[in-house]
Amino acid sequence: MHVSPLETNVKVRNGRIQITNMTKANIVMRLVLWALLLFTLIGPFFLDYGTITWSTAISLTLGNLKMMFLEPAFHQITFATALKQISMTLALAFLATILGAVLSFFLAIFSAKNLAPSMVSNGIIAFNSFIRAVPTVLWVLIFAIVAGLGAIACVLGMMLHTIAYLTKAFAESFEELEEGTIEALRASGANWWHIVWHAVVPQSSSYMVSWIFLRFETNYGVAVAMGAAAAAGGIGFELFMASSFYYDLHEVGMITYCALIVAIILELVSLRIKRKLMAKS
Questions:
Q1: Where are the bilayer-spanning segments (predicted)?
Q2: Tens of pLDDT along 53-83?
Q3: Residue ranges of the domains in the chain?
Q4: For the domain 74-280, what is the CATH superfamily, name and number?
């Protein structure tokens, strides 16, 4: 089929020919991105800075950054307290992830189009789309109104968004299973639960573990933020106290480094797990 040069964009990169179809969606997306870039560049010139002295503002900002990241230190809390609070943050993220993963598995097998009726599947997909459309932070704040500020609201909000997120991920992995395996089990007289436990779970376990750990990393970041916003405790609450109550920038920097180190460790563990799962598969 002949393709008009106006409809494609042919590029050669690293010896490979790349063809990009200039569809209406691509054109609209590029226009939106260019418009956002233009507004970002020219927007600061239309702001009213009033009586701000730029030299003083820049000097104070650099001084604050120096205190936070070049001179970190604990003053109000100890290193042992910081470790305890980080453990609490990890516990909140772990609890929300595990509870969400268990419930997501059962919702996923009823939302996978090759395992469940279309009416049930479409209903669960629509419900999950609504849950995912609302940010996790907002769900936590909604539960804080219902259940009160604290760890319970934090876990419930993260768990709800985790359920919607993992249900979609699990269902997509279930739908990628070979149809021949499922049909063979059905032909041999296996019931629906036998198909799930003997075909779906073994072939999708590596994907599920990978998605669960990815969501755990996300929930850790949310738990840090919600420690202050929803009074859930943990290292996020200590960060809020150091920055807003004590205004101790040295401690803010030290707490930030501690939270960052834990996030890097989680990322390294995640990469190692993914490599092992890929090697097994």
A1: 27-46, 90-112, 137-160, 220-242, 254-273
A2: 878 888 998 998 998 889 889 888 889 999 9
A3: 5-68, 74-280
A4: MetI-like (1.10.3720.10)
Phi, psi dihedrals of residue 257, rounded to the nearest 5° = -65, -40
Exposure string of 201-237, with b = 16+ CB inside 10 Å and e = fewer, is eebbebbbebbbbbbbebbbbbbbbbbbbbbbbbbbb
Q: What is the pLDDT of residues 150-170, one digit of tens each?
A: 888 889 999 999 999 999 988
The predicted-structure confidence for 133-142, as pLDDT tens digits, reads as follows 888 888 888 8
